[in-house]
Amino acid sequence: MAQHDQDMAEALCEQVRQADMDKTPLKIVGGDTKAFYGRPVQGHPLSIREHRGISHYDPVELIVSVRTGTPVTELEAALDAEGQMLAFEPPHFGNAATVGGMIATGLSGPRRPWAGSVRDFVLGSRVITHDGKHLRFGGEVIKNVAGYDLSRLMAGAQGTLGVLTEVSLKVLPKPTAVHSLSLAIPLTSALERLADWGRQPLPITAATYHDGSLHLRLEGGANSVAAARERLGGDTLDNTFWTDLREHRLAFFSSADDRPLWRLSLPNNTPALELENGDDTAVIYDWGGAQRWLRTRLATDTLRNAASSAGGHATCYTPGDCDPFMPLAPTVAKYHRHLKATLDPNGIFNPGRLYAEV
Amino acid sequence: MNILYDERLDGELPANDKQQVLTRLQEAVQGLTLLHREEDLRPFECDGLSAYRVLPMLVALPDTLDQVERLMRTCHDMGVPVVTRGAGTGLSGGALPLEQGVLLVMSRFKQILEIDPEARIARVQPGVRNLAISEAAAPYGLYYAPDPSSQIACSIGGNVAENAGGVHCLKYGLTVHNILKIEVITIEGERMTLGSDALDSPGFDLLALFTGSEGMLGIVTEVTVKLLPNPENAKVLMASFDDVEKAGKAVGDIIAAGIIPGGLEMMDKLAIQAAEDFVHAGYPVEAEAILLCELDGVEADVDDDCDTVRRILETAGAIDISLARDDAERARFWAGRKNAFPAVGRMSPDYYCMDGTIPRRELPRVLNGIAALSKESGLPVANVFHAGDGNMHPLVLFDANQPGELELAEEVGGKILELCVEAGGSITGEHGVGREKINQMCTQFQPDEITVFHAVKAAFDERRLLNPGKNIPTLQRCAEFGAMHVHNNELPHPDLPRF
Ligand SMILES: Cc1cc2nc3c(=O)[nH]c(=O)nc-3n(C[C@H](O)[C@H](O)[C@H](O)COP(=O)(O)OP(=O)(O)OC[C@H]3O[C@@H](n4cnc5c(N)ncnc54)[C@H](O)[C@@H]3O)c2cc1C
To answer: Is the pLDDT score of A320 beyond 90?
Structure first.
């Protein structure tokens, strides 16, 4: 047991019960590293940070259960010691990042298109409901279809449906070999090659076009990585590039650039969009083209319309500039409201963080 | 406790006059095929859980989404329950009809709408068979990963509704990991899109919530699935053991070595013998257990992994290890496993297939428990096991023509599931709760958790018209089940005399 491990669930339940009775909104806070990702919440702070520790880790079962106040770095260190990892490569955006924030925001790193997203690895959860009950959904087994999948619903719901106190995650062994490389090729041929390679069993686990080069990461068995490396050639790239990209530490993301930062999530074979060529717009193509970071002053509607006509959506990463998340289709929005009303009838959990009405 | 819909325990159902509903639907939905005569309804009275049969009031076989939409609107207006059916291969009675309800059969929606090899996706209608997707993708070197043993027959709509798995899901995931987008029609007849062609969508992950929701939240009318490139190379090792426990331990050792096999399956003696008898897969019929371990990827890695796994199997005490020499032999090794259910079906007039999951480390204990239950009841149990992910399929053999044997088989099955829950597992890994495990849900979940499930249901279907009675038990049912249980086990004070 690590030094700070403690179970604060009882006290958290009590706070929630009180808030529900008084109908006072709660602002659920972990490490407060991702406040920018969402709309501002007015509410009494409910801190999860003290509720921490790995409650169960069994490397042979490929499963870890961890309290949500645990720092992501602490969890990753424990997995690393057993040669395992969180395959979805969550961004931390600060040392204080907690497991709860990682799940609630549902953000994944460069490996996402090949390995899956946060929710893909969520197996179970413990949740405090609006009336202060501490419940368990899913569990510590890889397959489980009993009841509705509340745990995956909670991933990415930004704390608007309940307080996550513990999650069980599937973990994976770290690859035995890693090699990163850069190819100085034009964007169009990079996107074409990626589409082509996508139909072949190549060990690519990250692909990003940035600054005139296609950056690739190869991971897997020693033989396949060596063979792919030989085939693809290019210049060796330091593996830290992927961490810098994931953590938005590349110069591209610098706050010195006063253009808003946008994220476009698009179908994986979307060609370069016309608006990406604008003079005052800079782009990083991540996830093999399926996730694009834009520095741009283009209007919100322009970006959203372009993203949605391409089959995706656009999220604003610069707080205050506009609502972060793209509005939902009316019927989908209606069922968001219904779910919020049945699971959080008094509207106490992070009200408005995702959308004004939830 | 009987699992057929019981209004006293499962909630009152609206009573509608059959003729009236028929007339209204005929008027409201142009060109809709509606079956209403008993002989036409008969083929739809059960799904893969054939011990339970109910004639639906009506069967609707729409050809267009417009018809589905109108049908839903009309049923909603009239307060008529709707049960959706795909291919009807479900093993938990999820598509079991209701006497007072319309059975909506999606099997005419059979079109593969689009295969996009560049985007590596397929867009298909819900009635398309699972295997048909991989067949259509094969010319591009692509395939759809989840491969339930029923893949020649089951529909993708049913797969989404059950979050179906297969022998390759430890490495490649379940249905939920392999779909991007679904189109849905709600009980009120509204259309909505969940997920998107991109890798994520704004808002709640309703795609994940709908996956595995057993037709309780909406009708799946279209599915966009991800396609994967065929692995360059796949090899299968078959190891035999003189002891089930050793085989179980070998499974953990393989994973502890950092290897994630494409498939890792285990069968016990009875299952081996049944399969060998049926498909002549070349299985060692004297062995107590076999493990099938498929390693796939780039050839050079596969060779390395094969060596490592072989060493692990030897150390774990395998008495024989053979490597499939070619694709034909590999297919034969798998054929035995994939046909294990029908193979066992040939040995016994009836069998009852369970679907519990457990943490792998609990395997020896649970297998011993199952053996004890088998001995006590006199019913043989064959074990087929997705060993890599802890999903067991004990098959309880019985003869429904012997009075009381079905009830006995169900009792043994129920106890096996309780054993799984006790071991920290779940009552269902991939077949779903349906009606079959409705009572065992009360073992796995507390009343408060069940209340939350009902809240989720209410958000999408307040009047409980979609597949009522499936998946989530009422609290009344759980109370009664709990009381009966306490009685049977003579808890909480078994040592005290009772009068
Ligand atoms: C021999 C055999 C082997 C099997 N092996 C496996 C296996 O390896 N892995 C596995 O996961 N399963 C397995 N199954 C179980 C079964 O094949 C799966 O559950 C399958 O997904 C059911 O698909 P279906 O089309 O037959 O659905 P059905 O049985 O028709 O329906 C199943 C459920 O889905 C709902 N449903 C169906 N279509 C829709 C729709 N369009 N919209 C909304 N809800 C819908 C129904 O209401 C019902 O609740 C096996 C079954 C058999 C008979």
So the answer is: no
Q: How far is the CA of B437 from the centre of ligand 1 (A)?
A: 15
Fold (topology level) of B112-229: 3.30.465
CATH number of the domain enclosing A29: 3.30.465.10
pLDDT at A186 over 70: yes
Tell whether A231 is within 8 A of chain B (Cβ): no
Domain identity same for A212 and A242: yes
The pLDDT assigned to B484 comes to: 76
Q: What is the pTM of this model?
A: 0.96
* First-last CA distance in chain B: 24
Q: pLDDT exceeding 90 applies to what percent of chain A?
A: 96
Q: Same domain for A66 and A112?
A: yes
B233-341 belongs to CATH 3.40.50.720: no
How many helices, marked H, and strands, marked E, lie in chain A? 11, 17
CA distance A116 to B15: 46
Task: Say whether pLDDT at B97 is over 60.
Answer: yes
Please identify, by atom number, the ligand 1 atom nearest to the C-alpha of residue B94. Answer: 49
Q: How far is the CA of B136 from the centre of ligand 1 (A)?
A: 21
Whether residue A64 lies inside any domain: the answer is yes
CA distance B31 to chain A (A): 27
- Across residues B364-384, what is the average pLDDT? 94
Probe residue for ligand 1, chosen from B103, B150, B222 as the CB with the greatest number of ligand atoms within 8 Å: B150
Q: Comparing B112-229 with B233-341, is the CATH topology the same?
A: no
Residues in contact with A203: Cβ distance below 8 Å, sequence separation at least 6, in sequence order: A218, A219, A220, A221, A224, A225, A228, B297, B298
Please indicate, yes or no, if residue A327 is contained in any of the structural domains: no
| CB atoms A199 and B140 under 8 Å | yes
In this structure, the residue with its CA closest to atom 5 of ligand 1 is B149
Same domain flag for A159 and A59 = yes
Among the four given CATH numbers 3.30.70.2740, 3.90.10.10, 1.10.357.10, 3.40.50.1820, the one describing domain B348-422: 3.30.70.2740
In this prediction, residues B181-204 reach a mean pLDDT of 98
**Which domain range does residue A264 map to?**
177-316
Could you tell me the residue ranges of all domains in chain B?
7-105, 112-229, 233-341, 348-422
Q: List pLDDT tens digits, range A190-219.
A: 999 999 999 888 999 999 999 999 999 999
CA distance A336 to chain B (A): 7
Architecture field, domain B7-105:
2-Layer Sandwich (3.30)
Q: What pLDDT digit, counting tens, does each position of A70-79 carry? A: 999 999 999 9
User: Residue B82's Cα: distance from chain center in Å?
Assistant: 21
A262 DSSP β-pair partners: A294, A316
Nearest CB neighbour to A117, from listed B199, B301, B431: B199
Q: How many independent structural domains does chain A possess?
A: 2
pLDDT tens-digit readout, B252-282: 999 999 999 999 999 999 999 999 999 999 9
The letter for the amino acid at A341 is: A
Task: Report, as an integer, the average pLDDT of A30-53.
Answer: 96
A349 lies in some domain? no
Q: Identify whether residues A194 and A129 lie together within a single domain.
A: no
pLDDT of B54-96, one tens digit each? 999 999 999 999 999 999 999 999 999 999 999 999 999 999 9
SS3 A6: strand
